[in-house]
Amino acid sequence: MRRSSSPSIRLSEKQVERQGDLLMHALGFEAIRFSQPRNTMQTRGIPDRRYYSSSRRSAVWWEAKTAIGRPSAFQVAFRALVEAVGEEYVLGTDEALLDWAVAKGFCERLRNGLRVVPAECRL
Length: 123
Description:
With about 120 residues, this protein is α+β, with helices and mostly antiparallel strands.
């Protein structure tokens, strides 16, 4: 899998979300999307995405942000709740999501892109 060498500095939040969705799809995750372009009746602070992979037996919350984006107080509180019960949460650009995936052993960074580690090969 190849990734752009340019950081997510000038991308909109929607573009960052799209990059994260592409990454996670390549890793075998399904996305549940919560982000809305308008006010909704959903709980404030819920992240943009929840990703699930049954083959990797893993799930993660992701609050997508641009390189200069900052979390709201509601997002900070939701993160604290999620982490207090042992769930995983990533805040930041698609690069932060990639860092999480690398740390979990789901993929490896290469000089010219990424290598996806098949779910059945992970220990």
